[in-house]
Structure formats: structure tokens, C-alpha cells
Design brief:
TIM Barrel; eight-stranded parallel beta barrel; 30% strand
Length: 236
């Protein structure tokens, strides 16, 4: 299993939200690149970046911080939030981002995602509220079931699906393993759990369930998960 520690970017700072609500943002660092460096020191291979402003604006909004992260660490980078066209994907590739996460556009234009997956390393982000797909920075809930969207990309060349239970995001109440498994089974793709992770018991439960990866956010920032210990556990 792969652990992907997360940095959510809002107004150039590293923050965490509760249930995806922008007005709940808690600032953890004014220099996100320093957080990425810390992840590297603890043994991470990846950092999961989200441009929160970009998710709402539909275009990248935190490029200076993303450049600084790329310049100051050797981690592999993945990013989501506001990626709606190929020009943005190319721009991120030129910046040294390894793979991009397509979310809202995957609901509105699945063919675009399939086309991009033939050219670039693409992940699909499926964010759900009560099993229904949420879009536009989770501000809107669509009438599509998350499992139906996952099935859409079963043989499309997409590298993985990141699935978030929005109701648990930032709550540290435990990962929704049943939801994650339903996405994994519907798509047949590598599936990364997001939302609700609290401590080592979640890491162990995810490993036992055969989940391919997990995003670690608030559990690291609030100190309920020892990230170094978590990396050791998955390497075993």
C-alpha cells in the first residue's frame, strides 16, 4: 500500500479543511515546501497536492507554491484542483509534476479524461457525498453515483482512482473502507482512499482490506498518526 501525505493549498498556505468547506480552513504552514521537505525526511515517496483555490476557480491558483515544492524536494508530485484542459496538464508536466488528478471534468467530460490518459499519467478523483459524486470543489452534488463513474474508467488507461468520502474529510473518524472497496471493485483500478484517516488502526484496516493506497492529511498535522511508523508498517 502507498501512503500519500497531502498538502492542501489555499492562498499560498498549507491548510486543512473540514468536510471540504473553505471557511473551515486551518493554516498549518505559511511555507508549504517546508512541509513537503518534512514528508521526504520521514520516508515518503509522494506528496499529494490539492489547489483548493483552483478547484473553485477552475484554473490553477497556487503555482508559485507548487514551483517551490518542486524545487525544494525530490518527492514525486501529484496534483488536483482546477485542471480542466490539456494546456493545464502540459503546464504542470513542464513544472515537474508527475501525475495529475482530474475530478469535476471526469463527470462532465469523461471522454476528455480517457483521451488524456493515453498521453499523460492521469488519476481520476471521485469525491462523494452519500454515494453521489460531488463537483466544483464539492460545492455541487451531481446526480451520478460514484460507483457508476468509477466503472466508466475501468479500461481507459487511468492510473488510479482517488476516492473521497466528503462527509469524513478532515473529521478523523475513520476511513470509509466499504465505499473505497465499492470503487475498487467497480473500476478494477488501483484505488486510493481519502477522507477520515485518524491513526495506525486505519492503516492496518486498509492493508487488511487490500486497498492500494491512502491519503494522509489532518492525522499528520494534528499528530494522531506517526507518519514514520506508518511508512515502516506498509514497507513490511
Amino acid at each position: 500500500m502507498t501512503i500519500l501525505p497531502a498538502i492542501d493549498l489555499k492562498d499560498g498556505k498549507a491548510v486543512r479543511l473540514t468536510k471540504g468547506l473553505m471557511d473551515t480552513a486551518k493554516i498549518y504552514s505559511d511555507e508549504p515546501w517546508q512541509v513537503a521537505k518534512r514528508f521526504e525526511e520521514l520516508g515518503s515517496e509522494w506528496v499529494h497536492l490539492v489547489d483548493l483555490n483552483g478547484a473553485f476557480a477552475g484554473t490553477p491558483q497556487n503555482l508559485e507554491q507548487i514551483k517551490k515544492i518542486r524545487e525544494n524536494c525530490n518527492l514525486k508530485l501529484e496534483i488536483g484542483g482546477g485542471i480542466r484542459d490539456e494546456e493545464t496538464i502540459k503546464m504542470y508536466r513542464d513544472l515537474g509534476v508527475d501525475r495529475v488528478i482530474l475530478g469535476s471534468i471526469a463527470v462532465k467530460n469523461p471522454q476528455f479524461v480517457k483521451d488524456m490518459a493515453k498521453k499523460y499519467r492521469v488519476l481520476v478523483g471521485i469525491d462523494a457525498i452519500d454515494g453521489m459524486v460531488a463537483v466544483e470543489g464539492w460545492a455541487e452534488v451531481s446526480d451520478m453515483r460514484a460507483t457508476d463513474l468509477a466503472r466508466e474508467f475501468a479500461n481507459a488507461g487511468v492510473e488510479a482512482i482517488i476516492c473521497t468520502d466528503v462527509g469524513r474529510d478532515g473529521m478523523m473518524t475513520g476511513v470509509n473502507i466499504a465505499f473505497t472497496k465499492s470503487i475498487q471493485e467497480a473500476s478494477g483500478l488501483e484505488t486510493i482512499a481519502s477522507g477520515g484517516l485518524r491513526d495506525m488502526s486505519d492503516i492496518k484496516a486498509l492493508i487488511e482490506a487490500g486497498i492500494d493506497g491512502t491519503i494522509v492529511g489532518k492525522a499528520f498535522y494534528e499528530g494522531t498518526l506517526d507518519l514514520e511508523e506508518a511508512f515502516r508498517k506498509v514497507k513490511q
